[in-house]
Specification:
2 strands, mainly alpha
Length: about 270
């Protein structure tokens, strides 16, 4: 049946005659052996849906299906090769990453496995942190803008952008085997320091930065106070004297803040 199926596929591709026109005793010109091997497999697993998928993937990679099928039939041997040989492990890693791009279920399984393994979880967190820092520097280089600590987006000074470009070029030149974390941290700290310097050296930007920070703090404080559930305090009798003391101290601080702002408003 393996010969039969191989002939049938080769006939569909026009390499041999269809079964219907075959005549006993008639000589037929056969394709070269190498060509025939791309249709014929000596493994029974090749006829299954799984086997056909593996064979198709092998052909796409430019290798004989029989090799891929042999590996698929011996997962323990594959595991041993991955554990023993860094090159095989690297190939397997690349294949898994390619597979995960189109396999959400595998993505979920890998994410779950990493989250449950402390060493891997820490490594992923470290790499994510380095990637975020590199992204911060790259964004300045590509967009020519900086984001201030208070969240404002302004044009990056020439000196700052040049320094970001220098650090980014160093990061891009790193080999895959080199750790990017330390370099990313240095680039991030340097650029962040230059951003803070740029804010302080620009009087208008400095004022706007402090105003933005004040508004942000005020909004957070307002939201926290609004979320206080005073009804529960009264209903469930969880009141303590310390609560009242803290609110009275907060009231004094707010009154002092209001008085300061009113004086500033009058002076301006």
């Amino acid at each position: 049946m393996r010969y039969y199926k191989a002939w049938d596929m080769a006939a569909d591709d026009g390499l041999v005659p269809q079964f219907e026109v075959l005549v006993p005793g008639e000589d037929i010109e056969l394709p070269d052996a190498d060509v025939w091997l791309s249709y014929y497999t000596s493994r029974n697993s090749a006829s299954s849906v799984r086997g056909q998928a593996i064979s198709a993937a092998a052909e796409a990679e430019g290798i004989r299906p029989t090799k891929a099928l042999e590996v698929a039939e011996n997962p323990t041997a594959l595991r041993a090769a991955i554990l023993a040989d860094p090159g095989t492990a690297e190939t397997a890693r690349g294949a898994l990453l390619d597979r995960m791009k189109e396999d959400p279920a595998l993505q979920t399984e890998m994410a779950r496995a990493i989250a449950r393994t402390d060493g891997l979880k820490k490594a992923v967190a470290s790499e994510a942190k380095a990637a975020d820092r590199i992204g911060y520097v790259r964004q300045i280089v590509e967009n020519g803008q900086i984001r201030t600590p208070a969240g404002q987006t302004v044009e990056a000074p020439a000196e700052l952008r040049a320094e970001a470009e220098r650090h980014l070029s160093l990061l891009d030149e790193l080999d895959d085997s080199e750790e990017a974390g330390e370099w990313a941290g240095e680039a991030y700290d340097t650029v962040k320091g230059l951003v803070a310097k740029a804010v302080e050296e620009d009087p208008a930007l400095r004022v706007q930065e402090r105003r933005t920070k004040f508004y942000s703090s005020l909004q957070k404080a307002t939201k926290v106070f609004e979320e206080l559930t005073l009804d529960e305090v009264l209903e469930e009798e969880i009141f303590e004297d310390d609560m009242l003391q803290r609110l009275e101290a907060l009231q004094e601080a707010i009154s002092s803040c209001i008085s300061t702002l009113r004086r500033a408003s009058t002076a301006s």
